[in-house]
Input
Amino acid sequence: MLGFAQSEDSDLQFWASALLLNLTMTSDQVKEEIVKCGGLKALIELAISDSREPATASQAAKTLVMLGFVGKNNYYMNLSYSKGLKAL
Output
């Protein structure tokens, strides 16, 4: 998915951002894998890009928000995410 999110094709970016958003709603493990695989950088780039499909940036921003909800309380970002931040 992350490869498609970094594609030049705006349709691929749109569907990749949609799938990543859906994946972040499944489990904390999935969120951690997205971050470990460099998902933060790809999502930030999508969120601030000028895509032909305006919903792509919106979905990427929503996905970034969902990545922040981890754990039972869902009010903080798990410190293990700091490993993924180094990729930025």
About this structure: The helical segments are 2-5, 10-24, 28-36, 39-48, 54-67, 82-85.
